[in-house]
Amino acid sequence: KERVIESREFFLDSKRNPxxxxxxxxxxxxxxxxxxxxxxIIFTGDDNATKTIATHYYGSxxxxxxxxxxxxxxxxxxxEEGRLHAPGANVTGILERHFYSDAVYLIDTLNDxxxxxxxxxxxxxxxxxxxxYTSKMLFKHLSTGSWQADKKIIFLPQISTFTxxxxxxxxxxxxxxxxxxxxxxxxxxDTGQVLKDTAILAWTRETLKIPSIAFHGSYIEGGVxxxxxxxxxxxxxxxxxxxxxxxxxxxxxxxxxxxxxxxxVVINAETTRRxxxxxxxSLLIGSTIYPAPEK
Length: 295
Prior knowledge:
four-stranded parallel β-sheet
């Protein structure tokens, strides 16, 4: 059945502009544009959009579908705890939940192909992220969960500057360690300007000797060793499917709030080669392999 859907988009841009005053002003402008457009359904992407825009329309006549949310939705008052299967109001959505236990298995499998001192068994996994609100919610969520892994999980202080980033990774860059690189979106240079993550990834690619994991495809393409992705596309696509259910007449309060069911294995072949690893055939099947980044 052919559909004609008119849509409008508003970008809060709160990662590159983390000041509360910026977000407050953007939210006011966004709400004005929503009121003028008078949509049949609203989609909110990420925690900042969901905790401001989705909560504003909670309990209204306009259905809301969120995606890319790291916090528990009851922390924003969008559902009662324990009611994710049937949220009950006008809001449903897609949770951003990464495949951490699977990622641990992935780095072990790759590291087992490595010889020399850095080929020793991985004992510690460090979590590193910027100082964004999204990363704060991620750390809060992970600190209460079970990793189902035989390794020590260490939460590093959230990073605000590139200088701090380099010092932190240099300190843990030794055998037996690995690192999960999460968000790099609010890291600043010495002048206080937010850096493009490409510069941060270039340093990471050339410096790290330990296995590294990311959950953003662009980070792995830029030099992080590997990851199991919950892509932004997958998040938005899954939210779109729920939106179509609502447009077709399903009550949003009956549509479960849930994460996507599966992720995608992605490996940077250049990084694994530089670290002296081989990619087992079992991982090649069904995985996305990035070529060497351009010099």
